[in-house]
Amino acid sequence: MSELTSxxxxxxxxxxxxxxxxxxxxxxxxxxxxxxRERKGLPLKKMSPAQRKAAMAMLQLVLSDEGYRxxxxxxxxxxxxxxxxxxxxxxxxxxxxNFSFLVFGEPGTGPWGWRVEGHHLxxxxxxxxxxxxxxxxFMGSNPxxxxxxxxxxxxxxxxxxxELAFKLLHTLKPDQxxxxxxxxxxxxxxxxxxxxxxxxxxxxxxxxxDLSADQKQAFTSLIMAYLRRYHVTLKNQQWQSLEKAGLDxxxxxxxxxxxxxxxxxxxxxxxxxxxxxxIEFDNTQNGGNHIHSVxxxxxxxxxxxxxxxHYQKSH
Length: 315
Fold this sequence. Notes:
Elements: H1 2-10, H2 14-20, E1 21-22, E2 42-43, H3 49-62, H4 65-84, E3 100-106, E4 109-118, E5 121-128, E6 131-133, E7 137-141, H5 159-171, H6 174-180, E8 181-183, E9 206-207, H7 213-227, H8 232-245, E10 251-256, E11 268-273, E12 277-283, H9 285-288, E13 291-297, H10 304-314
Parallel strand pairs: 1-3, 8-10
Antiparallel strand pairs: 2-3, 3-4, 4-5, 5-6, 5-7, 7-13, 9-10, 10-11, 11-12, 12-13
Protein name: DUF3500 domain-containing protein
InterPro entries: DUF3500
């Protein structure tokens, strides 16, 4: 990661580097969002082909092949929105080149990190004392399923994240549903949205401990749909952390439609909430065809816990 990030920075002019690199202590590191907006960093549109290749190599390293395909598909959905919303080809609001890379600190020296961010994609990586974190990690999809008559028609970028959740929901017996379904109507947005620190008052829903063996397997498969987005080392690291905190304490909570009524329903929401981590999935906008999903670490987003330990050791 240090080598690839240094290589990317080495391709940049002085002016580009001023946009692409800040100190690790800069407040922009935790200022994140998944909507179209002006954001710090160097966007793809201001990079040469070689610079883009170097930037995307950073992303390809930390994601699995599956995760990398999803990230590129999310970027490509900007082209779909241009057509659906009748925007011109040079529109800058729905723009597949408006995804920015931003490095914090010096690669390989002390705490450092980087992010890539644009509409419906916000991925953050922190490296502290040889350890790496990847949260908050947001992937969204608008449309959830491409219905328009475009080359991407029928595409469902976050298919597993939706289908495996319904599969788990449909395995629950009536008494289990009474615990798992906490509201009949889904919220219009993820509860934690783009908060600096993810926090919920309590864990709700049904626990892994209260599921049958087959249901536990379905629940595990759903969690893995998120962890498989990342390099196998990061995936295994996160799973081991969940095991250490206690898998039986992980809750599954549901709100809204109990069938995927694409573009015609009121939408649905679920969350996976454990002692140390949180996953939220919301598909309520556009009649249930506009997905937001996020993975949060309740103690270590932006490497917060690792940074605290680093400073304790250093001082």
